[in-house]
Each structure stands twice: as C-alpha cells, then as structure tokens.
Amino acid sequence: MKRAILCLTILFAIAILTGCASSPDVTYGNPEQVETVTADFGSTDLQMIAESMVNSLLATPLLQSGKRPVMYVSSVRNKTDEHIDTKSITDKIKVTLLKSGRVQFSAVSEANDEIIKQLEYQNLTDYVDPKTRKNLGKQVGADYFLYGEITSIKKKAGRVEDVYFKFTLNLVNISTGLLEWADEKEIRKGAKKPLLGK
Amino acid sequence: MLKNLIALMVVLLFTAGCGGVVTNVMDAKLDGSKNIIINDGSLNRQLTFGDFRRNGAEVQVELINKTKRDISFEYRFIWYDSNGIEISSITNWNPSQLTGMESRGYRSTPPSDAAAGFKLMIRKSHPITQY
C-alpha cells in the first residue's frame, strides 16, 4: 500500500514538473490538417474556399477551350466582422489556376507602379542595352477579372456559438460586361464552451 | 486490485499519445479503372466508396454512410500524372458530414491536362483543436 502511494506520488510529481518546464513547447504542424481551434475564420476555411472555387473555375468551358484567357483579380470585399485577409484567399486561387496552365494572369493591377518604373528606367535612361530594352505599349490587356465578397452570420446562445460563412466569386468579361461565371462556397462552424474554463 | 489499477493507469498514460489516424483510399484512373485500399476497417464499416463517375472535366465519387447515425469525417483528392507524380496544388483535408444512411457525390476537377488519375482519401475526423 505504501509502495503504491509512493509510485502514484512520483507519477503525479512528474506530471506537475513537466507542466512547469521553462521553455515553450513548440512543434510544427501539418498545414493540410483540419483546424478547429476556434469558430473564427481559419486556415481550413481558406483552403476549402480556394479548392472549391478552383474546381468550379477549371470545369467551366471557358478554361477547357485551350485558349488561356488573361485575367486579373479585382477586389474581394470582407463583409464579416472579423479580420480576414481576403488577398490570401485570392492568391491561393491565382497560384492554383496559374499552375493549371489554362489561365494567364495580368500583374498590372498589383505591380503596375513597379512595371512602369522599370519601363521608364529601360527606355528613358542610357543604362540599358538597347537590344534588351522592353518597349512601351506591349502590355497584354486582360480579358476577364475576378471579384467577390465574403459574408458571415453569427449566432450565440449561452455556451453555443454558430458561425456561417459564404464566399462568392464572379468572373466578368471586360469586353461585354457579362458575368461569365459565378460560384459560392458555404461553411458552417459551431463551437461550444466548456462548463469550466475559457 | 490496486496494483492492477496502477498498472492500467501507467499503460493508459503511455499509450494516450500514440493514437494515429489511417486513411481508406480509392485510387482511380481517368479511364475508369479503380482500386480500393482499406486501412481502417472500422471506418469502412461506417463509410464506404460508391460509384465513380466522370462528367467531362469533373470526376465524382459517391460516399455512402452505412449507419443510421450522422458521421463526421475528412476527405481529400490528390491528383497524379501518368508517371505517378502528384500534381495537386491544393492538398488539404476537408471536413464533411453525412447524415444517417445518406450517400452523396464528392467532386473534383483535374488540376491540369497532365492528370491521369486521382486518389480520394477518407479518414476519421482528426482536427487540430489545440497545441
């Protein structure tokens, strides 16, 4: 009996001391894993939205035709009450579409200042070999642009919280002004606070 | 009795962190051939692969809840080329749920023209809840 109590005490002491370690316990996680730390917008939501939008876009006849249309991303409005970096969602969509080889993206909307600065440097100064100068008036005009928004509906009752997100993305033909494609992704997350603790 | 209880507690303490999650896989080629690999028998008794269909650019695999309870699980599509090299850019696990006896189609689009087949992986819910 005394031995049993001693063993239990030692085990308990080890458990307590392990929690008192002076350095933080840091581990690398798997970015592909589902994350449910809170009901706020998270990495898994970003990935699910990007995958859904890309799957839908790649299946459209426009991107199956072999023509490689040129597009750019306009704005994705955050209409939720959380801070959401909508650019990280559209960047993921853009990277995946580019890798498909079926789309070209114009960088003008994001990097035009840099492009103009470089063109002026190459054409208005004598530093650059004329044989390698990039001439003005050669930018490719975009055929389409993407725009969208993310909204949310939050409800709380006692310990239960329910959050609904909806992400909508649209593809517009610049020449005609027609909406050529649109899709949306809905996500619902729930959280229940424990009886004790936070 | 107390000795057995202590031994059981020690075993539980040591094995609590050893749990892992395995996947069941449908390995399918775009020509329609498929192969199913079951690594988690208990998951397979609840959730099975159904038909694999192709509709032009998209593929759809049916997942069937064989129980009368709602089940939560995770799935992902990984595409590969004719040499077996993975070409998917988005490889995250997606959480999903099926109500009792429900079957539903899960769809994916080949990420590029090099796609020759895909693996649809399913596993029990295994989210990060805290570190």
Task: Give a short summary of the structure.
The complex is a heterodimer of chains A (198) and B (131). By secondary structure, chain A is α/β, with parallel strands linked by helices. Chain A has helices at 2-19, 43-58, 61-64, 86-100, 108-124; strands at 70-78, 104-105, 144-157, 160-173, 179-192.
Please tag this protein with its features:
heterodimer, A: 198 residues, alpha/beta, Rossmann fold, 2 domains, 5-stranded mixed β-sheet, 5 helices, 5 strands, B: 131 residues, alpha+beta, 5-stranded antiparallel β-sheet, 15% helix
Can you walk through the features of this model?
The complex is a heterodimer of chains A (198) and B (131). Chain A is α/β, with parallel strands linked by helices. In chain A, 35% of the residues lie in helices and 27% in strands. Chain A folds into 2 domains: 38-104 and 141-192, Rossmann fold; 107-138, no CATH class. Chain A has a 5-stranded mixed beta sheet with strand order 2-1-3-4-5, with helices on one face. In chain A, α2 runs parallel beside α4 (86-100). Chain A is elongated. The two termini of chain A are 38 Å apart. Chain B is built from 2 helices and 8 strands; from the N terminus they run αββαββββββ. In chain B, the strands form 2 sheets. A 5-stranded antiparallel beta sheet of chain B has the order 2-1-8-5-6. In chain B, strands 3-4-7 form a 3-stranded antiparallel beta sheet. Chain B has one domain (19-124): Immunoglobulin-like (Sandwich). With 131 residues, chain B is α+β, with helices and mostly antiparallel strands. Classes of the chains: A alpha/beta (198), B alpha+beta (131). At the A-B interface, α1, α2 and α4 of A face α1 of B.
